[in-house]
Every structure is written in structure tokens, then in C-alpha cells.
Design goal:
Elements: E1 9-17, E2 23-25, E3 28-30, E4 36-38, E5 58-59, E6 68-70, H1 72-77, H2 90-100, E7 104-114, H3 127-144
Parallel strand pairs: 1-7
Antiparallel strand pairs: 1-2, 1-6, 3-4, 5-7
């Protein structure tokens, strides 16, 4: 609650652990895995994270709706959850719309819960659920495009591979003025945070 009372904060997310004690959610990294992925997903619960970031409350681009506190006025102002995103990414989309409206999204380790991810849904890689995830991913790509590759809270020199979070990106995701861009280099346009 304390984080939600801060100026311009619209949503606050919690530190979620699997029943086995490993991290399920510590904020979202835009672009990781295509649309977004949980920071520190699968890491041991007691980790301090990259430069101790898993220990401190911080602004993030998105948090999971599995445990999200949202101010009603802000929720209503941006139109709530998008029903087209019934299974996947509705929380990321909501957070991006809140940020677009000038509001802040905060993740805090002070609220820590155990979470059985997917207990009410089947796995996302089978049957109809797989199709819904794919549709959600396509919609997010169309709606948010390059913004998914420019998370202002995740260094653009770091990898978007969910298995290599916090590792240097290879090839680099940013263009350096002293290096010519070539067909073998993945280049991300430099985008100012804001």
C-alpha cells in the first residue's frame, strides 16, 4: 500500500515465488521473449539479482496481474483490461497504457507471495491456450511495436533472451556511432526514455 500512495504511482506489483521457492515474478522486462518476460524468472528466491536490484522497490515497465494493486481511478481512466487479451499480456498492455498516461508502475519485494502460476489455466504451449497466447503476442506487437524493444528500465546493452537476462546482448541491440551497421548486426534504434 505504501508504494501505491506515492505520487503518480498507478500500479504496484509483488514479488512472486513458486511453491519451490524459485522466483516467478520480479517485474517485467519488455521485449524479453518477444513481448515481455518476468525478471529473474526461475532464479533462487534469495537472490539479490543484478546489482542488488531484486532487493529494492523500483519503477518497472509492467507487473503481472497475478498480484497487482491498481488505483481504481487510473484503471478506469485507461479503459481497464483489454478483453481482446483474454489470456496473455492483458497486464502488460494495461501497464503500458498507464505509463502512456504519465503514471508510474512499481515493483516491490516488500510484498512477497507464493504463486501457483497457471493453476487455473492449462499450459500456454498446448491447444487453444497456445492459439490465444499467439494472438495476444501478435496484438501486442502491432499495438506497441518498437516500444517493446526499448524498455526504459532495462539496459539496451543487455540481452532480451529470457534465459540470458542481465547478460550482455550479442549481437549488440544498440547502434554505436563508431560501428557501421551491417546485415549481420541486429540494430535497435536509440530511443529516449520518457
Amino acid at each position: 500500500m505504501g508504494e501505491a500512495l506515492r505520487d503518480r504511482v498507478a500500479a504496484v506489483g509483488a514479488f512472486l515465488l513458486y511453491p519451490n521457492g524459485r522466483i516467478q515474478h520480479a517485474g517485467c522486462i519488455l521485449g524479453a521473449g518477444g513481448v515481455a518476460a518476468h525478471a529473474y524468472h526461475g532464479w533462487p528466491g534469495g537472490t539479490s539479482g543484478y546489482h542488488d536490484r531484486a532487493l529494492v522497490a523500483q519503477d518497472v515497465s509492467a507487473v503481472t496481474a497475478a498480484c497487482m494493486l491498481v488505483k481504481r481511478a487510473d484503471f478506469v481512466a485507461v479503459g481497464g483490461f483489454d478483453e481482446e487479451l483474454a489470456v496473455a499480456y492483458n497486464d502488460v498492455d494495461l501497464c503500458l497504457r498507464l505509463r502512456q498516461a504519465g503514471r508510474r508502475i512499481v515493483w516491490t519485494p516488500a510484498a512477497s507471495l507464493r504463486h501457483k502460476e497457471g493453476a487455473s489455466l492449462r499450459r500456454h504451449y498446448v491447444g487453444e491456450t497456445r492459439t490465444q497466447w499467439a494472438r495476444g503476442s501478435e496484438l501486442m506487437q502491432r499495438r506497441w511495436g518498437d516500444q517493446l524493444l526499448a524498455d526504459p528500465y532495462y539496459n539496451p546493452n543487455l540481452s532480451l533472451d529470457p534465459l540470458l537476462q542481465w547478460e550482455p546482448a550479442f549481437p549488440p541491440r544498440v547502434r554505436y556511432p563508431w560501428r557501421p551497421a551491417g546485415p549481420d548486426r541486429a540494430v535497435m534504434p536509440v530511443v529516449a526514455a520518457g
